[in-house]
Amino acid sequence: xxxxxxxxxxxxxxxxxxxxxxEARLTPRNYAYQHCRDSQFTVEPEPRVCRERxxxxxxxxxxxxxxxxxxxxxxxxxxxxxxxSGEMQLNFAEHLAWEDVRQQLQTDxxxxxxxxxxxxxxxxxxxxxxxxxxxxxxxxxxxRPLLEAVEDLSTRLYTDFIYxxxxxxxxxPLADVLKYRRGVCQxxxxxxxxxxxxxxxxxxxxxxxxxxxxxxxxKPLSGADESHAWFSVYLPHLGxxxxxxxxxxxxxxxxxxxxxxxxxxxxxPLKGVVFGSGTHELSxxxxxxxxx
Amino acid sequence: xxxxxxxxxxxxGDSYHAAKSADLSHDEQIDEMLSRDRxxxxxxxxxxxxxxxxxxxxxxxxxxxxxxxxxxxxxTYVVHGEQQGHRPWELDPIPLIISNTDxxxxxxxxxxxxxxxxxILTDLYGERRLIKDGLIxxxxxxxxxxxxxxxxxxxxxxxxxxxxxxxxxARGSDGRVWVLGDRTQAPSGAGYALENRTALARxxxxxxxxxxxxxxxxxxxxxxxxxxxLQYQLGQLESxxxxxxxxxxxxxxxxxTPGPLNETYFEHAYxxxxxxxxxxxxxxxxxxxxxxxxxxxxxxxxxxxxxRRVDDIFCDPLELRQDSRLxxxxxxxxxxxxxxxxxxxxxxxxxxxPSLMPFLPNIAKHLIGEDxxxxxxxxxWCGEPKQxxxxxxxxxxxxxxxxxRQPGGRPLFGSELSRAELDTLRAQINAEPHLYVGQEYIxxxxxxxxxxxxxxxxxxxxxxxxFAEKNGYAVMPGxxxxxxxxxxxxxxxxxxxxxxxxxxxxxPEPEPHISxxxxxxxxxxxxxxxxxxxxxxxxxxxxVGRYAERAEGQARLxxxxxxxxxxxxxxxxxxxxxxxxPSTLFTETLGGEAREVxxxxxxxxxxxxxxxxxxxxxxxANKGEQSLENELLSxxxxxxxxxxxVSTLQALVSAAYAVRDRWSTxxxxxxxxIENLCATLEKSVPEDGDTGKQILTDLVLQxxxxxxxxxxxxxxxxxxxxNAESMTQTVGWISLDMGRRIERALLLxxxxxxxxxxxxxxxxxxxxxxxxxxxxxxxITYRSxxxxxxxxxxxxxxxxxxxxxxxxxxxxxKRLQEQIRVLPREKLGYRxxxxxxxxxEALTQLxxxxxxxxxxxxxxxxxxxxxxxxxxRLAQIxxxxxxxxxxxxxxxxxxxxxxxxxxNL
Lengths: 292, 905
Prior knowledge:
The complex is a heterodimer.
Chain A: E1 2-17, E2 19-24, E3 34-44, E4 49-54, E5 60-66, E6 70-83, H1 98-107, H2 111-116, H3 130-137, H4 146-160, E7 162-163, H5 174-180, E8 182-183, H6 185-198, E9 203-210, E10 228-235, E11 239-243, E12 255-261, H7 264-267, E13 270-275, E14 280-291
Parallel strand pairs in A: 7-8
Antiparallel strand pairs in A: 1-6, 1-14, 2-5, 2-13, 3-6, 4-5, 9-10, 9-12, 10-11
Helix pairs in contact in A: 3-6, 4-6
Chain B: H1 3-22, H2 24-27, H3 45-54, H4 56-72, E1 76-79, E2 85-88, E3 91-98, H5 100-124, H6 129-132, H7 138-142, E4 164-171, E5 177-183, H8 190-203, H9 207-211, H10 217-236, E6 253-257, H11 265-275, E7 278-281, E8 285-288, E9 291-296, E10 299-303, E11 305-308, H12 331-336, E12 341-343, H13 360-368, E13 379-381, H14 385-393, E14 398-402, E15 412-413, H15 419-431, E16 436-440, E17 446-451, E18 454-468, E19 473-475, E20 480-483, E21 499-505, H16 535-570, H17 582-589, H18 592-614, H19 619-622, H20 628-637, H21 645-658, H22 665-683, H23 692-701, H24 703-726, H25 731-756, H26 762-775, H27 779-786, H28 792-801, H29 809-822, H30 834-847, H31 851-855, H32 865-890, E22 896-900
């Protein structure tokens, strides 16, 4: 499936900003199920310095600085991405029981597993909480295959939590999301990751897009006109498997992956330090369309 | 050595041995001076002999001398917590002495360890083979807050990571030296070690040569040279984009400090000063066009090398800790581009991680094929189940540390914890085992310290310092020894109240003295006047000028007032103002009642001046005289009152402290005296307001208070003299002098407005004129020049328009104009800059005025409106000038804000 994505971010300032430094993680990734054909950045006003690099997780980081007074900053990224349809044949029942997976993560000494173990640890936005453990446990009945248990967990998150764009901000602690049972896709993803880590599994955060237009006869997906986020769980020898608890589905060919990391803080789409007084307003729009 | 010589120092040794045996808590520890069979170790002979010659009593007085030197040199350590403030640095005069052979072993071990840690750092921020190959458990690194993912790939391969390294050492009961901890991000203490040596060398001048102690200056010279090499090495790198070409031979080096509130700020300033580098805070630097620049008075100046004392995570608010105000936004990207070298690079703090200690022997074998020459203190990392079980089973005997050292965090001693505390700790360890280690509790060796005139055993640790040379590491032949202050403490830390010691490494033969200055020939800095002075430093100097001048004015006026008040109590005939004082005259001619009224009028006018000076309105300006005593007291001593003398002095000291590296030793001593006096004044504040009157009466009557004002005047004059005579007349001095001129001019204006604008009875006016002249330090000039009674227009002439009177308003404005003229600025054709226009206007207005007209009373009023108008206008211009200077030259500093996508996903 081929997509064209236009992601536009606009900051309007009440007072002119003279200087700003920014980092954008808005370039879709290349990996087994996805090929990014092309990704173009347009920044207004024109940056004085821009550089591209790969971060620790292999995400593409676009760094730029603006050194002239400006009242508005616009970052537009236009990307063309081929998504290879999720051909993974996942027969849940035949896969390893979660107990065995957990055991393997701790005892396998191959370089990949040793590297993967960092995704079991707490991360800045996902602290350990006994409530997460308690919530997760219900899906992990004795001997159940890991993927089946995770799918159950993802479905429960979808059912138990209310998608509410007005309730949380980026600064809302996970504990509050858990307490009030509402949040947005980022919170759903963090919850899933927190639950899995509490039980000793490796889980990571994925940021990306989903197709804006609903398929014929389906209702539109949540988070379609902005950045989207979901989580991924690691299975030895199989690799990472994605779950989107916000839409209660396993991402296949309607999800476009931009970046991954331990949590939102590792993959913030656009962040920066600006020098100037006053406040700012933000508007974001995403248009993610199939091209044939 | 003569047998007879041995006798006495053996006596000192015996008494020390007795002290050690008597002290149960210290008896079992090995001692640095005494061997197991209670003999004095050979490497202490020279010192003990010298100590015998000197005598313990003399040593005690030298100790006092040392403390005095340290205090006067302003060697301090900032203490956080309840007793905040600058604590004087404590130095015990008995050094820790280490023999040459012993030190050879130790320094070989340290060098090996530094090389090993450098290899590990390079790997962790590169390929991470050590983790992938199973030599380091992933959690030991990935769960450690010091491992910064943003710093992976930061340093080009082949470039050294661990340039600056310090290790904490102690000798255990087996006689071996153990490494207790590693300091790898921004180790502190080398500057204190140097200052300790300097102070001790002054107090015990002959000892060093006789005994043959390794000098420390070699180490700093190596450091300086290495810093120059770094610049060269960086220039060679292909990855450097070099938007501006690097200055290979004369790099601009800054010491990046978190600022005066940091506990070791003294050292940052000291090191910057000693090595000839610029001291800067994060806000003083900016990233522009892919380089780091210093915001200096003359504009932006490129920075090549940053010796940082800011912790890793605070270095860059863009990529590291977002709320950091201590770092430089965009710094990491400049490092990646190879356009600046940071020593040590951010991320190096991951090696300050005791959970790596158990794995070091294996890693050493794997990476360098060697055994560790210097063992680490036995450490069990709770991330491994077996080690955790051991720690939990032996909690009471161990020292428990979190793997990541939080500011202010202290290790826990199992033996000191209650049952409940042990349970809590056990639960914490079980919850996140990989974040804790248990360490063996080492009984550090004791070493003699001078306590109450006697040698007594105190446990000590040594911080050793290394700097990467081109090949291998240079080890400082010495270090910072810290020993317990009060007995029985389990930790030995300066923050916790410990005492420091000089560390002597015996040299086979005496070494020549090396001055850093001699070594720098051929690399003489030819920086222009404004270079190297940050805008912040310039601003602080400006305010030092203003506060010093303000304090002087306040103190002088307070003294005059107190003299008068005292005189009022005791009868005016005892006037201290001088023999030909007109007040004597009016005492004789006026009756009692009239005298009281006029005294009040006079006092009110003077108090108005004081209120104006101290900006403590409403104060005397509107209140009745009932609160006079309290108000006067408040103006002098109240720290809550921003305009009080004490507050001004505090502001002066704090502005001076912020540019600690700019002052000569003598200037700093004067500043210290001012600080001490200020502390004394603060202490004399009464607890509640009611006692104010009584206290004031006492104050007035007590010669001591007047004396302290007199003393203050002398200190402030000394400061002003040193500023004028001993500071190079670069922009730094210009800033300070501009501050002084503006403040002095404003003070004069306040005096004129509050005392001379209103028309009074002739004799009150005379009294006022006399006081204003005295307050403006112009009374003597007036008398010697005019030898006449006080004449209003003549007084005005001298105070306002006399170009030869260094206290006159005209003089201040002219000086200010000169200073403003030479400030660095871009020429805008023939147009004058804003500040040039302002000062020109002020001068013109003043010079066009006529004192006879100014002295004239306005029709239908009791005021001299012309004088009032002129003074108000000039005051406004001066305030504007100060603002324009601040805006144009000082505040290139804008506050950063974080920008994140706060949209809901």
